[in-house]
Write a structure and sequence with these properties.
This is SPFH domain-containing protein. By secondary structure, the chain is of the alpha+beta class. The protein is built from nine helices and nine strands. Strand 6 and strand 7 form a beta hairpin.
């Protein structure tokens, strides 16, 4: 009635009430009555906002690509933004101008400027795979942009969703990619075969090394056995030498004993001979007849034996000798 109106805003909207061109009241989530002829109201949304973008650029090899993504930002200084762009609303809270859309355009323009500087340094194949790098470039550029700073907003995140070439180049790249994949598949098959061959060679080499090691071990064992046999033969030789030396020593001692026994026996014989010589010395020059007479046993047989001996000594002088059988029998009986 008579230009007096009431308006109410939610808590996510920063409201600036101007009266006669001067700020009369400001804050979030305001509600008030106002006189329309001398009052204007600016409403700036405080929540985070998403800006979708898609634009085309040219790579270093003069190929056209399209870049699609999303930028999320938040208004940090609504009063500063209200001084740059017109966020005035009518009595129903509807924006009177399209400056809200201009804000998004300015953000997109800054993002496209950063994209162009980055993409024009890359070849097509590099560009279509540069999602993460491009997102970081755009984010850093917006953070340092004076234009973004003058708007009183803060970029929260930048997501590059797609970097695409033209359909013709996409098909060409797909063909090339398939060829590369086929080449890699062939290389993988070759590598698997080469790996299998190498593994087989390693197994054969290992088996050969094992056989060599076994032969070396056998050779070492045979050498050890030979050394043991040589050592045993040497020990046996030493034992035989020791036994021979012992036998020689025993024989030497035995020979010494025999020599000593012979010497003693010789000495005994010499002593006996000397004793007999001494005993016989007085009778050496005597006639045996005298000795027989001295023996004086008076044995008739002995006397007869002496008589026969004298006959034998004088056999050349005797022509005939007659011994009767009775006499011979008598002599034999007496001797028996």
């Amino acid at each position: 009635m008579f230009g007096l109106k009431y308006i109410q805003f939610d808590a996510m909207t920063y409201v600036i009430r101007y009266k006669n061109g001067e700020v009369a009241k400001e804050g979030r989530g305001l509600s008030f009555f106002y006189f329309a002829p001398n009052t204007s109201i600016a409403a700036i949304p405080m929540g985070s906002n998403d800006v979708n973008f898609i634009y085309t650029e040219t790579t270093a090899d003069f190929q056209e690509i399209s870049v699609q993504g999303q930028i999320t930002y938040k208004i940090e200084n609504p009063k500063q933004l209200a001084e740059v762009l017109d966020f005035t609303v009518d009595g129903k809270g509807v924006y009177k101008t399209d400056d809200y859309e201009k804000l998004n355009e300015r953000i997109i323009n800054e993002a496209q400027t950063a994209t162009a500087a980055f993409i024009r340094k890359l070849q097509l194949m590099e560009a279509v795979t540069s999602f993460d790098a491009l997102g970081k470039v755009i984010s850093e550029y917006l953070q340092n942009s004076s234009t973004i700073g003058s708007l009183g907003i803060t970029p929260l995140s930048v997501n590059v969703l797609a970097v695409k070439a033209t359909p013709e180049m996409s098909r060409a790249m797909e063909t090339k990619a398939r060829e590369e994949l086929q080449k890699k598949a062939d290389e993988a098959i070759y590598e698997r075969r080469n790996f299998a061959v190498e593994q087989e060679r390693m197994i054969q080499q290992s088996e050969l090394n094992t056989e060599i090691a076994v032969e070396e071990k056998k050779k070492e064992i045979a050498q050890k056995q030979m050394e043991r046999q040589v050592a045993e033969a040497e020990n046996q030789r030493k034992i035989r030498e020791m036994r021979i030396e012992a036998d020689i020593s025993v024989e030497n001692k035995r020979q010494g004993l025999i020599d000593m026994q012979v010497s003693n026996e010789k000495k005994n014989a010499d002593a006996k001979g000397y004793s007999i010589e001494t005993m016989l010395k007085p009778y050496r020059d005597l006639d045996w007849k005298m000795l027989m007479a001295l023996n004086g046993s008076g044995d008739p047989g002995s006397n007869i034996a002496m008589a026969f001996r004298e006959l034998a000594e004088n056999a050349g002088k005797i022509e005939n000798l007659h011994i009767s059988p009775d006499l011979l029998n008598t002599l034999v009986k007496k001797r028996g």
